[in-house]
Each structure stands twice: as C-alpha cells, then as structure tokens.
Amino acid sequence: MSAHSVGLIFFGWGILLALFSVLVAPRLQAQFSALQILTGCLSLLALILVVMAFGSVTVIATCVVLSGAVMGVCNTIYTEIALEISDAPRPVASAGYNFIRWFAGVVAPFLAPLLAEYFSAQLTFVVAAGAAVAAFVILWVYRQHLQRPEQPVSALAESSTRPLLLALSGHQPAHHVLQQTIDMARLQQRPVELVHIRTWEVVETDAIDVESQERTGKLIDEAGRILAQAGLSVRVSLLEAPASLLVETMLKLMSELNVSGVILGRHDPSVRNHLWHGSLVDALNQKAGADVELVVVPATLSQS
C-alpha cells in the first residue's frame, strides 16, 4: 500500500472523527443517555476490531475509516462525562482525563508491535477489542457514579403560586424581555425565577466557554435588580451545563421548580448552535408539559 493510500485512509478517518464528534454526538445526546451511547459505540468498536483481525487489507482500511465515526462520538461523550461528574474545576478535571487518555495512547503503540511480533497481528486487534469490552463492563459496574452533581437552585419562599421561569441569555441586555416578564408576572401575580445556564462546548478533549463569565454575571445581576425594583418576588440562579445538555437541564429545572410558564430571552439565532444542537425552542415545545406556557421574546427588536 502506497504512502498516498495510507494518507487517504487516515484523511477519511479524521473527517468522520470530526463530523461525528461535532455534529452527530450532540444530536445523539438529545435522544439517549451517555451510558446508552457509549454502550453502543464500544460494542461497535469491539466488532470493528474483531473484523479487522481477520479481514483483508481492503476490509482493514475500510474499518479504519469507519472507526473514526465511533471514536468521534466516544471523544465527545467521554470528555463531557469526565468534566461533569468531577467536583474539581473544569481545567483540573480536563487535565486528569487527558492524562489517562494519552497515557493509554502512549502504551498502545509500544504493546501492539510486541504482541504482533511474539504472537500474531490478529491477536493485537483481539486484545484491543477486549479492551473495548472491558471499558463497557466498567461503565456498567460504575454507572451510578456517572450522574452529574446536583447544582443548587435558589428557591423562592414557600408559596402555593407556581412561579414564572425567565431563562435569560447572557450575551446582551434585553430590557424588553424583562418588561415582558414584569407584565406577565404582575398580570398573573406570580413570583419569578430568573435563571441563566452558562454553557460550554466540547471540542475534541477540551471544554470551551462560549461566553464571558464576568460579563454574564453582570448582565444577570442587572436583570435581577430591574425585576426587584419593579416590585416582583425574584430569585437569581446561575447554573452550568454542556451546550448539548441544555434542553435536558432546562426540562429538569422546570420540573423541580414546578413553573407555570417559561419566558425565553433569545439573542440572535446562531446557525452553529442550530446545526450542532438543534433549536432549544422546538425541543421545549415538544417536551414541556401541556400546562406550561412557553413565551419566546427575541432579545433585539427589529427596526422598521
């Protein structure tokens, strides 16, 4: 096999790795749990490795390319799990995860030639398949530890009145969104839960903040002050979640607070976010209870 052929094989592998890591994994997360996704991916990876052990050169080349898709999904899911379940700061959790990840990456190139030399090339792939199966077993044994730590949410004083939930964007001030909230809360005589969920994206094995923490904090504090000055009973909560789990986090929050309505202050639609994660509004429309009113207010009014 020529150098160009090998290069094309790994070019195909890299393309599938990137596409499935960035585009496919977030969509899978919207439908299935991390454990379900990894169970499927590790099973597929083990199967691919077994096929490679006994396949022809063409079959092996095809399997290498296809493995990029499986590994791309695994990269995203494993990274998010490592960052979510750790109580350490994200940079520390990411460093610990990458140490384990690349330690195995260093050991594998050393052991694979030894297995092939002293036993057979087929055994190398079989051992790798066994490692995928072992990872699957470990995940199921310790599945109870894969839950995200609970994030404290400020609760309003005990009341029989269900609150309104204002989920505000942290990208820019939205005074008319606040006015809409004030009008609804006064009309319905309800307290307000002001919540901002600060999201982060997973790219390969790194978590990237998509907004400034300092600027977001100032905007949300200012929004809380405006609502309080309007005479409303309001509490402010700042949460964090991967962008791929924004819908799940919102639905859980709505259930815990038993809200009567949700007001979304939405900034200009992002083509990237819609491409990666789909529409938050559409997802909430489909999954929120029938007794929850959903109001979407664009954060900027069109100029006529």
UniProtKB/TrEMBL annotation:
SUPFAM superfamilies from the entry? Adenine nucleotide alpha hydrolases-like, MFS general substrate transporter
> Which superkingdom does the taxonomy of this entry point to?
Bacteria
Q: Which GO terms describe its molecular function?
A: transmembrane transporter activity
Entry-linked Gene3D superfamilies:
HUPs (3.40.50.620), MFS general substrate transporter like domains (1.20.1250.20)
Where do the TM regions start and end? 6-25, 99-116, 122-142
Spell out the InterPro entries in the cross-references. Answer: MFS (IPR011701), MFS_dom (IPR020846), MFS_trans_sf (IPR036259), Rossmann-like_a/b/a_fold (IPR014729), YfmO-like (IPR053200)
Q: Which UniProt keywords apply?
A: Membrane, Transmembrane, Transmembrane helix
UniProt keyword Glycoprotein present:
no
**Domain Major facilitator superfamily (MFS) profile, first and last residues per copy:** 1-147
Protein's UniProt keywords contain RNA-binding: no
Protein name per Swiss-Prot or TrEMBL: Major facilitator superfamily (MFS) profile domain-containing protein
Q: Which organism is it from?
A: Gynuella sunshinyii YC6258
